[in-house]
């Protein structure tokens, strides 16, 4: 497993550095994400990447019946699992994702459902960071009153 980060590093040197700078993301998880997504140039926008991962929402209406919104799950299940782990790490080590986690939990969502929602948000954020080559900025710490 230690060979994966070394194998991915020559193909994505800048992206690997940006991902490893995220709090809670280690070299293995970053390398797995880069290996599973490949070059982001093949996606015209973040919605295409989200759909490729299978985290897009589908609705199956029939007449007046609207149906339920569900994840399409058309993409790679291993990529979805890696994104779930990334979301769990970001929720634990960043204020931005911790606040989003608390918000969805306060709405009554289950922990697993909340982490899937955060997986989709994390994928959109990772697409932006890697596409524009900008580092992650967390929310500032509150100043004591």
Distance between the amino and carboxyl termini: 47 Å
Number of helices: 7
The whole-angstrom Rg is 16 Å
Total number of strands: 2
Q: Please give the share of residues in helix.
A: 55-70%
Strand order of the largest sheet: 1-2
Which term fits the overall shape? globular
Please trace the helix and strand order, writing H or E for each element: HHHHEEHHH
The biggest sheet amounts to: 2 strands, antiparallel
% residues in beta strands: under 5%
Unreliably modeled segments? none
Structural class of the helix and strand makeup? Answer: mainly alpha
Number of domains: 1
Q: How are the SSEs ordered, and which strands pair?
A:
Elements: H1 3-8, H2 13-20, H3 27-37, H4 46-53, E1 57-58, E2 70-71, H5 77-93, H6 95-106, H7 111-132
Antiparallel strand pairs: 1-2
Helix pairs in contact: 2-3, 3-5, 4-7, 5-6, 5-7, 6-7
Description:
By secondary structure, this protein is mainly α. The protein has one domain (11-132). It has helices spanning 3-8, 13-20, 27-37, 46-53, 77-93, 95-106, 111-132; strands at residues 57-58, 70-71. A two-stranded antiparallel ribbon has the order 1-2. The longest helix has 22 residues, at 111-132.
